[in-house]
């Protein structure tokens, strides 16, 4: 696979336990799917604390870190990998600002939540972060290499 192809950029998107409990898996998948991005991997997973602590290790000194890990461990998460041109930055636009009171209407967080501690979804913040997070949450053989039947309708 040619990883220098901009259309092969990948991001890690997770539907947090509140998003799963509130029945938003389908809607969130729909938004990435209808945009034209390609689903490369997806699984429902009750994440171990060690995985979550590693995932959020850069936030370990924040006052909300323990609560964040407890929230993420409170139920299953729907973990996904999405692929396409500029999917990291665009994925975060689809999610909306971290604090749902700042997220624009039309974004996932803007449409569905209020509290930064219950903000429904996660998206990688940079291409390098995405690579780290994908490797943390998925085995190589869980990442599906395939092409859309006819990409000319998207690119
Ligand atoms: P995410 O990783 O979840 O996409 O969020 P982010 O990069 O936009 O935000 P970041 O600052 O990395 O925070 C990660 C998650 O921690 C929770 N948080 N709580 N003040 C608080 O209580 C607070 N601040 C952040 C949020 O769930 C946020 O998504």
From TrEMBL:
Q: What is its EC number?
A: 2.7.4.6
Under InterPro entries, the record lists: NDK-like_dom, NDK-like_dom_sf, Nucleoside_diP_kinase, Nucleoside_diP_kinase_AS
Which Gene3D superfamilies does this entry report, sorted A to Z?
Answer: Nucleoside diphosphate kinase-like domain
- For this protein, what reaction is catalysed? a 2'-deoxyribonucleoside 5'-diphosphate + ATP = a 2'-deoxyribonucleoside 5'-triphosphate + ADP
PROSITE patterns recorded = NDPK (PS00469), NDPK_LIKE (PS51374)
GO BP field: CTP biosynthetic process; GTP biosynthetic process; UTP biosynthetic process
In the UniProt entry, which residues are flagged as the active site? 122
Family to which this protein belongs: Belongs to the NDK family.
Protein name (database record): Nucleoside diphosphate kinase
Q: Which organism is it from?
A: Elysia chlorotica
Q: What is the lineage of its organism?
A: Eukaryota, Metazoa, Spiralia, Lophotrochozoa, Mollusca
